[in-house]
Amino acid sequence: MIKLIGLVPLFPLIGFLINGFFGKKMSKGLSGIIASVSILASFVLSVLIFVELNGSENKSHIVNLFSWINSGSLIIPFELLVDPLSSLFLLIITGIGFLIHVYSTGYMHDDEGFSRFFTYLNLFIFFMLLLVLGNNYLIMFVGWEGVGLCSYLLIGFWFKNTAYNNAARKAFVMNRIGDLGFLLGIILVFVTFGSISYNEIFAKAGTVSTSTITCIALLLFVGAMGKSAQIPLYTWLPDAMAGPTPVSALIHAATMVTAGIYMIVRSNIFYSISEVAADTVAIVGVITALFAATIGLFQNDIKKILAYSTVSQLGLMFLGLGVGAYSSSVFHVTTHAFFKALLFLGAGSVIHAMGGEQDIRKMGGLSGKIKITFITMMLGTIAISGLPPFSGFFSKDEILAHTYEHNKVLWILGMITSMLTAFYVFRLIFLTFFGKFRGTHEQEHHLHESPPSMTFPLIVLAILSVVGGALGLPEFWHMPNWMANNLETVIIRKNPSTLSHDTEWSLMIIAVLGAAATIYAAYAIYRQRHIIPLNEGDKMPALQKTIYNKYYVDEIYDAVIRKPLDILSEAFHKFFDIQIIDGLVNGVGAAVKGLGSGIRLIQTGNIGFYIISMVIGIVFILLLTFLI
Amino acid sequence: MINGISINYYLLLSAVLFIIGAVGVMARRNSIIIFMCIELMLNAVNLLLVAFSTLHADANGQVFVFFIMAVAAAEVAVGLAILSMIYRNVKTIDTDVLSNLKN
What H or E segment, with its residue span, contains residue A446? Predict the structure, then answer.
């Protein structure tokens, strides 16, 4: 079955081609079915491969599909790698991807670009699968660029709206900055090791100087910063909300943002060797986590809150990577994929019920009206807050325990982040689902539960969010930590926990108490005292205003980077373009024209004159030959 | 000496023929006359080639002459066809009138 791994990315590609070429001629139902079934086929195959891999002794299979680049010393075969890490990502991508496809058939039902939407979704999944399956950095790079392209297409899906187009462009440019770092990293890898296949590189990683490894690791991390939305390249992710809600779920949960995490886990040997790089990852991660969590506190757009929460959770995952807890981070990627997809799809269902309204100040009291959405979202919220025994609790706790062992300051920051997370997600829940309805009468009349195609994925994801923690039960509970055992062969240098059981217990209890305290605070503010966030124009305290405006980061980027670039471009345009380049081109044109109008007079059209000139010329040449 | 006549006379004759041809080409305006003058120039050269070929007892020159005659025949056929087409279209073969390319 592992030999058939090539089919896994092939199915979405076929779906993409069918929908891309014939989508307009097909009915919406058929188009949605083809797209969903292609992902389902991949998912089934992924499950079979996963099971077979689990049962086999050899944990790493390389399947050579064809010879790709063969030029002198540069030989790059198109090889796919099946190991515990990639097979786990396959399950996440195709599994959650499938649920999102099903959901989209309901959510996008009235959209005129229905088949175009599924075309992009299938292509997105295809590139993401390529990214995780490649056995060398180049295939990963192809997938990497591909998901960047698809995210651009999907964020700007409603391309008639200029603001959405700008958001798409922002995502593209931000990713591009990261991609450059990643590309340089790959080139450095090739120059250093003479190969870009994982198995060859990682075997030789110990023989190279640490400074080179640090360079490679940092360059790769720049790529991860772009794709996984870390400071300073995170601003595209909250803006990526411009796309349809299922796209947000896809980008935030199953694909795209997890690419950076996957890449670092794949290259874990570099980060184990280079402490500088690992510390950078941890520090950037924890700052991003805290920064985004504080922004999330005061946002009023239901999707924006979730977007900042994704940035913040990704920060936590990078913190885990930085402190060497690779399997914990992958664990958190998995559980996060469950509950974040759930929350986004739930938010989509709320928006659907509200007829397009996204502002939580205009919601409230929805719990009775849309029961399934409410219950499932509630479960997702508890999971992300880190209350036991829901999935988020175990994964977050594992990361924080490793962080505590590594560095206490980072642990405190991580802890604050996770408390803030609990606060703002419950703020969202209380404002959306409890209290009195604050929208218009038409909206209240229009309120309805979503169709089964949308509630089914919610229910499945809710179940996964609840029980997902079983994948990685803490070792000191004397339970098998499946995640850590599974990834054992992938993580080259292990970093086992040396904390005593008492410490681990107390860390766990502190985390739960912290989360519970902030949830109570959210309850007291938004449920008991019925405080509604201030309106746009109202006066706010300075700090709150700064945070509400996202610390003015976009404005700062605008002023520091975009404006000077604009001025520089303008200057270049005026001087270099108009004066030199245009001058040169126009000058050549004018010279030829002038010369032509002079020489033109010779062309009299009189044959006799031509012949006389010819004879004179011949005589002249003959004379010259005789004289010289 | 060829058949008792000095080579110089051959040279002189072909030079005179050639110059008559060249002047005719330059001076006349009737396309057919110009055409005939070109033939005259070709044959002046042919005469020269044959004369030298006999003088040096080398057949190459005569081979050349055959080639030139064959090509010239083809050229005449094409040229006359062009001329007759021009005449059919503009009712003249006066080269001074045929100056459409000028504008």
Answer: helix A441-446
